[in-house]
Amino acid sequence: MTQRTLLGMLTPSSNTTLEPVTTAMIADIPEASAHFGRFRVTEIALSNQALAQFDDSEILRAAELLSHAKVQSIGWNGTSSGWLGFDADERLCRRITEATGIPACTSVLALNEIFDLTGVKRFGLVTPYLDDVQAAIIKNYAASGLECIAERHLRKQDNFSFAEVGADELRAMVHDVAKEKPQAITIFCTNLRGAPLVEELEREVGIPIYDTISTVVWKSLKQAGADPSRIRNWGSLFRDVQ
After folding, report:
1. How many Å apart are CA 144 and CA 235, to the nearest integer?
2. Which of 22, 59, 79, 237 sits in a 20 to 30 Å window from 14, CA-based?
3. Edge-first strand listing for the sheet containing 184-187
4. DSSP3 helix / strand / coil % (the chain, rounded to 5)
5. What DSSP assignment string belongs to 80-122?
6. Beta bridge partners of 150
7. Considering the chain, what percentage of its residues have pLDDT values greater than 70?
8. What angle do CA 199, 202, 204 make, to 5 degrees?
9. Measured between alpha carbons, how far is 134 from 237 in angstroms, rounded to an integer?
10. Which CATH architecture has domain 5-109+213-240?
């Protein structure tokens, strides 16, 4: 029997985009499968109630259950460290690996690694988030030496609603950001249906686009010892970034 590649994915409870998109994305790797664990996330805001959703103890409980499936990587499919600070994801990955013995990654840390590998210092940002959440993301990247030179956001708070954003609206946001000629654009939310649009949008704007569902799949496959370049038609990330 071919050695299986088992990817563990931690998923916000109200997310309806991540699972079908991830499953479709890895379809080109028949021995790979994604296995999902959920914990409560229903809103994205800077209130104490909203921030408390990302308490590590809840995430660790979900990670421990995923470890029972003997997954080879555990990925946090969320962008919360964009506003909480990147150290939150670094700490989370350490704690997951200490608790399970399994390598861990996150959407945001993978994106940051991709920016570093490709030399990106000036980027465009597309999100569904509120004004203050967007500002916090931009501030955290600026503190790390990366400048957001163009952004669009939808001022939404309810996490479920992000998946209701239509393809045409996402296309328009990416095209608007692309006018400022960033080195790369990130669609920064794992409940936006941006990943299926990346291939066509990259052809249209001529700029690499890194969706945060794609980034965690890319890193999870690497951690599991699989080759991300086997994924076809989901953007330049899988073709060009090693």
Report:
1. 26
2. 237
3. 147-153, 122-127, 184-187, 209-211
4. 50, 20, 30
5. THHHH-HHHHHHHHHHHHHHHSS-EEEHHHHHHHHHHHHT--E
6. 124
7. 97
8. 110
9. 24
10. 3-Layer(aba) Sandwich (3.40)
Amino acid at 69: A
The residue type of 30 is: P
86 torsion bin: left (phi>0), alpha (psi -120 to 50), beta (else): alpha
- Is it the case that residue 38 has pLDDT exceeding 60? yes
Burial (0-12, 13-18, 19+ Cβ within 10 Å), 74? buried
Rounded to an integer, the average pLDDT of 94-122 is 97
- Predicted pLDDT of residue 242: 84
What does the pLDDT average to over 164-186?
98
Pick 114-211's CATH classification: 3.40.50.1860, 3.40.190.10, 2.60.40.10, 3.30.530.20: 3.40.50.1860
Tokens at 91, concatenated: 């700490």
75 touches 49 (CB < 8 A):
no
Residue type for 22, please? T
Question: Which token pair is 95?
Answer: 């704690």
